[in-house]
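Two proteins were folded this term; both appear here.
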Amino acid sequence: MEKKIEGVNPLASSDLVKKGKEVEKSGQSDFGEVLKESLNEVNELQKKGQEAMSDIATGQVKDLHQAALAIDKAEMSMKLMLEVRNKAINAYKEILRTQI
């Protein structure tokens, strides 16, 4: 039984980027909604990663490759979310330093 290996999607085709482009095209700028959806997506990836780690630990894993991919996706999404948070905090601090 041969299984096809799924490729890693580039960042440009990620759901977050697609949602941002859709918002740009529609002229609506609901940053809070996009952020909330992105956080929910990161949360789901974290849950899948935790489930994959527990399956590996208990020996219940059926496909080690898919479990490793789930863990890597969870890690990368968390790193991306933390970088977005750091940039937002830095932008906020810069606004506070701006003199009027």
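Next, the second protein.
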Amino acid sequence: MNSPDTDKVFTGSIPKCYEEYLVPLIFEQYAADLAHRLAARPQPVTRILEIAAGTGVATRKMASTLPENVSIIATDLNQPMLDLASAIGTIRPVEWRQADAMQLPFQDARFDAVVCQFGVMFFPDKSKAFSEVRRVLRPGGVFIFSVWDRIEENDFVHTASTALESLFPEDPPRFMARTPHGYHDLAVIARDLQAGGFSAPPQISTVAMRSQARSARIPAIAYCQGSPLRNEIEARGKSRLGEATDAVAAAIAQRFGHGPVDGKIQAHIVTVEC
């Protein structure tokens, strides 16, 4: 049942739950960090490509932070995610476009910067995707992306995964550890970048932040219903989604309290020059 084929599927009600629950829980903080890093570049960027943009949290932050002369093209493999991102909109126009990171539909040396917030982990061939990024970057351009650190460094999702192991002892859903938190080895990242054509060594910062919610049920809904973890849970029985969400909420409440909850999140921010 643990099929990576479903790891990239953000369809049905997942995009809405992702935007409503998961974005404010773990993504907004890092989107602000990404926009700040771009704004602080010594050589200003004017053409940005975002890959795996999801519902547009980083896109919105870049559009509101960077000068209006900076053009942004935001892409994602999943059209339902882009449809929601476009419907939410941005403070100024950006271009939304469906695209596969394995084969970017852009000419060589077109962009000053390529960014990807928590999407690299989903690429089936990291080196191939990195070679595509390298191809569309102009000389002197920059690639900035973020990946989650190991699951044990991220409180709510680790608690959720442990709870699901107890609920499904014979075949626990392992999407979170396998994919979102499965690409944290810095040596592997550096090797894959080199294989993709980046000769400069990457600069990697490990950044810890806090994840907060009004109750334990919010992160439970976020992870169980707002990510492809839902696909794995429902593969074990459509009726078990509510049961799984309840089990995760109870585990988070037991560890972090029955009122507002606060947990650590941690990610690696990778910057590599072209």
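The mean pLDDT is 95. DSSP finds ten helices and seven strands in the chain. These notes refer to the second protein only.
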